[in-house]
Amino acid sequence: MDDQLGKSMLYLSRADVAAAGPAMPQIISAVEQMFREKAEGRTEMPPKIGVHPMPDAFIHAMPAAIVAQKAVGMKWVAGYPENSKRGLPYISGVFILNDADTGFPVAFMDCTWITAQRTGAATAVAAKYLARPDSTKVGVLGCGVQGRSNLEALSVCFPLKKVYAYDTHPERAKTYAEEMRAKFNIEAAAVAQAKEAVIDSDIVVTAGPILRKPHATISSGWLRKGAFASLVDFDSYWHPEALHEADKFCTDDGLQLDHYREIGYFQDIPAIYADLAELVAGRKPGRQAKEERTMACNLGLALDDVATAPLIYQKAVEKGIGVRLPL
Ligand SMILES: NC(=O)c1ccc[n+]([C@@H]2O[C@H](COP(=O)([O-])OP(=O)(O)OC[C@H]3O[C@@H](n4cnc5c(N)ncnc54)[C@H](O)[C@@H]3O)[C@@H](O)[C@H]2O)c1
Asked: Over the stretch 301-319, which tens digit does the pLDDT of each residue have?
């Protein structure tokens, strides 16, 4: 047992979390294993509750537990689309990791790195089951934090050769392309139109702002046959007709999707074919034909964070990172 249990908790700043950070393949495995546990009903996750102090902004409370892994905690995370005008990131917040046996908090950490990495990992898990294994070209729309972590995760699972980068701020797409070219040793093109990032891509990741009323830029006919799309920004980027072209439309949690529908999101999306737990557990087949268009709209689950945070805590303890705060 941790000799500090009940006496102190480990505080990890944003930089500490990144320094401790487990590698992406480990996070993808942890998230995939979590979906297996979820399929067996061995997880607990109440629907996201939150407050909305500004239009299209949110602060969510996200508790969850993975029983077998004794992983339990809660994220308190904000998403503010207007933050970029102030030079601030879209996402901010904290995560509390608890001891499953006593309930005591063991760590208190910045949650931006976890949010970035686990969301990328969830895209990779969905893509493992829904994308063509020979996918080489990725289109990224929204070249921010998620644009980066999603490509990183996809690079773990696919033989990537090229990324098309589109951002409403062209200089961000250019910087992103340069960074990704160097980081993953792939071709990277900053493109001037959203369509150019979609039409030739095997995998499309949309990661702009989440809007209750979609801007619906991506039209029907853009996503080519055989492609997979990860809708990190929900349905905001997609015209309903383009969404309805999907042969298989999946999500990470059907109940959470229903909850979002009730509060005004997702007014015109296809029927859900499967959730990720069903795909990972083999209860429903993923991609079955080369020509299928597949989509995953992962809402981002408290369980993703709870699967990832213990890895960060363990690494931080091993590496002696962070500051002890008395309880
Ligand atoms: N589904 C999930 O699990 C999950 C988790 C975390 C974040 N998100 C969402 O992902 C999105 C991106 O988050 P982030 O942290 O990367 O934000 P970010 O601010 O780091 O990046 C967003 C980028 O999108 C660009 N952009 C804005 N409008 C655009 C448009 N119409 N087309 C192309 N680019 C556009 C911005 O210039 C910026 O570069 C947000 O909507 C956030 O809520 C989803």
From this structure: 999 999 999 999 999 999 9
What is the model's pLDDT at position 56? 82
Q: Is 38 in the pocket of ligand 1 (CB under 6 A)?
A: no
Rounded to the nearest whole angstrom, what is the distance from the C-alpha of residue 134 to the centroid of ligand 1?
A: 27
For ligand 1, whether the C-beta of 169 sits within 6 Å is yes
CA 158 to chain centre: 17
Q: What's at 131, amino acid-wise?
A: A
Q: pTM (2 decimals)?
A: 0.96
* Ligand 1 centroid – CA 61 distance (Å): 20
Residues facing 11 on adjacent strands = 108, 323
Which ligand 1 atom is nearest residue 166's CA? 33
C-alpha 81/C-alpha 142 separation (Å) is: 12
Q: Residues 69, 74, 78, 84: is their CA dihedral positive or negative?
A: negative
Q: What are phi and psi of 65, to 5 degrees?
A: -145, 140
Nearest Cα residue to 227 out of 128, 141, 295:
295
Residue 233 Cα: closest atom of ligand 1:
41
**CB of residue 73 inside a 6 A radius of ligand 1:** no
Is 149 touching ligand 1 by the criterion CB < 6 Å? no
pLDDT computed for residue 274 by the predictor: 98
In whole angstroms, give the CA distance from residue 287 to residue 95.
Answer: 35
- CA-CA distance, 9 to 1, in Å (whole number)? 14
Angle at Cα 82 formed by Cα 78 and Cα 84, nearest 5°?
A: 95
Of 310 and 211, the one with more pLDDT: 310
Query: If you average pLDDT over residues 191-214, what whole number do you get?
Result: 95
